[in-house]
Amino acid sequence: MDGEVPNIKKWIVFYPVYINSKKTIAEGRRISISKACENPSCAEIGDCCSHFKLPFAIEIDKAYPRDFMQRGRVRVLLKKEDGTLYNPSISSRKELMHHVAELVPRHPGRVKKQEPASTSNAGSSKSGKGGKKKR
Length: 135
What we know:
The chain is an alpha+beta fold. It has helices at 4-10, 42-51, 93-103, 108-134, and strands at 12-14, 56-64, 67-76. It has a 3-stranded antiparallel β-sheet.
C-alpha cells in the first residue's frame, strides 16, 4: 500500500471536463466537440479504462481547479515501469481522451438513464407550461 501511493502521484490526471461536450475550451474541454461526449462521470471513465486494461484510480474528493463544483478525477497509468505501454493503441493523453470519449456514450449505465429521462421531461414540460399560463 505504501509503495502504491507515490506511484499514483506520477500517473496522468484525467478530469471528466476534458471530454465534456457541454464545456468550452476556456472551461477546460481538451478535445473537439464532435469527438467529445455529454457530461461524462468518473465511474464511466474508470469503466472505460478497465475496458482498455489500463490501471486507474478514481479520486472522488478532488475537484477541477477551474470549476470546483465539478467533483472527481481519474488517475491513469499508460506505461509500465520499463517504458512499455499497457495498451499499444493508447500512447498519449490525447489518444486516451479520444478513446474514452468514444466509449462513454455506449456505457451500459448511460444508455438506460437517457431513455426514461427524455420521456419524463416531455411530460413534465407540458404540465409546467400549463401552470405558468394560469398565473
